[in-house]
Amino acid sequence: MQPAARWTLPLLLVGLIAQDCFSSKAEDRLFRKLFRRYNQFIRPVENVSDPVTVEFEVSISQLVKVDEVNQIMETNLWLRHIWNDYKLRWMPAEFDGIEFIRVPSNKIWRPDIVLYNNAVGDFLVEDKTKALLKFDGTITWVPPAIFKSSCPMDITYFPFDYQNCSMKFGSWTYDKAKIDLVLIGSKVNLKDFWESGEWEIIDAPGYKHDIKYNCCEEIYPDITYSFYIRRLPLFYTINLIIPCLLISFLTVLVFYLPSDCGEKVTLCISVLLSLTVFLLVITETIPSTSLVIPLIGEYLLFTMIFVTLSIVITVFVLNVHYRTPMTHTMPDWVRSVFLRVLPRIMLMRRPIDEDSKAGGLDSSGEAGGAGGGGGGGGGKGGKKRKNSLMQQVGGGSLNCLEFGDSKFSTVEGCTGKKGPCPCQNGKETPETPDMGKITRQLSPQSINTVVAFSVVSPEIKQAIESVKYIAENMRSRNKAKEVEDDWKYVAMVIDRIFLWVFVTVCVVGTVGLFLQPLCGFVS
């Protein structure tokens, strides 16, 4: 048993080698027989009036690139050609049962099918690949090729755009009477398609057309494939749209920043500079075409105008904020609209001064100035603040002569008064008023009365005049401060108005620009 097993393996190897040798010899004989008198330049038809029927199919393996600027679509395709050559037939039994043979494509007749709308490179495919030949004369030739086809593109809704790129295949020299094209299937074969990271093929139907051109009388058939492709917008959404959206909403915060901090213009300029740098970075990403304005370009332009307007409005608001009575006079309509009407509409409440709550008129009997304003942001405002210095010097009036003392009965405001002076507590009126018993509020009239009709020392008179000067000075300062506060409140109201206006415009503009393409993308 061992000697038999020892010779079994070598005998099998020898048999296989001999079979391969015989098969190679049979294939060599077949090849020599087929191409001994074969002419690859003659159409393979028995009757010259008969057309060669060529079955055609396109299989796409990769969508290499879509160039929006040059309007070129680059694809990697496999072109399947199937036709019958009656001169390349044999009987398998005569050649050791060989039914298929691979032959060089440049040795056989091939249909000259080219890409009509080729943009760059050769129109014809290379003949380096071999063709599969069957014993009944059926030839299957599947050459791979990279085509750069011209494709008119509409980038209006970039980066949510759709494109329809067609590829037209047909014979360049043979009309329909010589070559008849037959479409295999109804669509491009996507079984071996390698998914692209930027584009998605939605559909790729194929159609056959018989067209008569102006140059010739013959009818030329062609097969056209329409590639409906959709851009995947995730990359552009993260790197373009979201940063622009954040910059737009950052601009809105300018109107919420108080004017007193002095950083409103700085924030505006910083946002504008960041947007400018961002535009310089993404210039190469956006399709550079002048035919249409892309959607992302419109949004960037909208954001740029948005930021620029915020700078202009901020400068105007700061101009209003720092106005004073020495430079501007507040018109009545501004006081009515911006201090009464608009604050109520904008739901703004102006803080009420504590001194205004205590109430009271000032020494001249006037009502409160424009600086108060509670509730809805009132007009000329709340009541004027009391003079703290006047309260310290004497909260009462020095005009004790207003009460009917006969000695000072000629003083203005004292005539007709009855009864003793309250500050004397029923005692006899002295020749000189008791300055330590002053209890009522000072007024210019009372001070003038005391100075004019009282027998006091020059030092006291000078002190009273100084108090009067200080009181008038503080009163004028309070009035100026109240007017300045009104201007600041007007600026605050303007800021609040444009805050809501810009928020509304930003939201409506963003939704309006991207709603239609987003709806189309989702559907």
From TrEMBL:
This is Uncharacterized protein. The keyword tRNA-binding does not apply. The lineage of its organism: Eukaryota, Metazoa, Chordata, Craniata, Vertebrata. Keywords: Cell membrane, Disulfide bond, Glycoprotein, Ion channel, Ion transport, Ligand-gated ion channel, Membrane, Receptor, Signal, Synapse, Transmembrane, Transmembrane helix, Transport. GO terms for molecular function: acetylcholine-gated monoatomic cation-selective channel activity; transmembrane signaling receptor activity. It is a multi-pass membrane protein. Coiled coil: none annotated. Residues 355-388 are annotated as: Disordered. Gene3D superfamilies: Neurotransmitter-gated ion-channel ligand-binding domain, Neurotransmitter-gated ion-channel transmembrane domain. Residues 1-23 form the signal peptide. It comes from Perca flavescens (American yellow perch). InterPro entries: Neur_chan_lig-bd, Neur_chan_lig-bd_sf, Neur_channel, Neuro-gated_channel_TM_sf, Neuro_actylchol_rec, Neurotrans-gated_channel_TM, Neurotransmitter_ion_chnl_CS, Nicotinic_acetylcholine_rcpt.
